Amino acid sequence: MTSLRVAAAQISTGPDPVANLATATEAVRRAAAAGASLVSLPEATLAAFGTDLRAVAEPLDGPFATGLRKLAADLGVVVIAGLFEPADDGRVHNTLLAAGPGVEASYRKIHLYDAFGSRESDLVAPGKDLVTFELNDVRVGLATCYDLRFAGQFTDLGRAGAELIVVPASWGAGPGKEEQWDLLIRARASDAQAWLLACDQAWTPPGGTDPLGIGRSALIDPLGHTRAHLAADPGLLLGEIDTALPATVRARVPIL
């Protein structure tokens, strides 16, 4: 079996990018020390929702992204984290940065969280392009949080060859939301017939309609089985993915 060791760093972030980078750095160092080749941080690692996103947004050559790139290079791992970058229309983009040896990719969240009383689109401009990249001969796809409610995006990522999909999130709390999260991450892995690594912000007491995280990060296999998961508190999820399994599943159940 050819395997890839992955990690989800379930942290809580606040309004200060400098403090958040320090928190992220400590978590990534722990994951690298445990042998992970790919480490996911949550959506909104730069700054939590509820912050003035226009004020903290940085370009992808700004200090936060540059700090993540240096960390990834120093440790020899690929780091994926959620940032906010300025958009042309005065809003921001909710962007994932993937950086590390041989990897430089970014994905702008396509589906914005205009649900359950929240209006992400008031502050965030949507992206439009699916993004994948190659790591150790594994095709990795990217998606963010509310994208999980759109099955077609994950089917398209599977058809694009993604064998692992990484989904950083800052999932909103509320009645039934934990069950919905658990259902959706398993369903989307099955839709894509790919491994799915979901990394949520650790549970944070709800504040208005801002999605602040519920925890429950997980690693799901291409048949929708949960291979590893965390509870609500901050923690580090580690798992090994069998990189040959997606092809085996796709051959046995040819839905793509």
What does this structure look like?
The structure is a single chain. By secondary structure, this protein is of the alpha/beta class. Helix content is 26%, strand content 28%. It has 6 helices and 12 strands. It has helices spanning 17-33, 53-56, 63-75, 151-159, 177-192, 245-252, and strands at residues 3-10, 38-40, 78-86, 92-100, 103-108, 132-135, 138-142, 164-169, 195-200, 218-220, 226-229, 235-242. The strands form 2 sheets. A 6-stranded mixed beta sheet has the order 5-4-3-2-1-12. The protein has a 6-stranded mixed beta sheet with strand order 6-7-8-9-10-11, covered by helices on one side. The longest helix has 17 residues, at 17-33. The radius of gyration is 16 Å and the shape is globular. The two termini are 24 Å apart. 50% of the residues are buried. The model has no long low-confidence stretch (mean pLDDT 98).
Summarize the structure in short:
With 256 residues, the protein is α/β, with parallel strands linked by helices.
Order of helices and strands: EHEHHEEEEEHEHEEEEH
Largest sheet: 6 strands, mixed
- Shape estimate: globular
Number of helices: 6
**Assembly state (oligomeric):** single chain
Distance between the first and last residues' Cα: 24 Å
Instruction: Look at the structure and give the mean pLDDT.
Output: 98
Low-confidence stretches: none
Structural class: alpha/beta
**Percentage beta strand:** 25-35%
Give the spatial strand order of the biggest sheet: 5-4-3-2-1-12
Estimate percent helicity. 25-40%
Radius of gyration: 16 Å
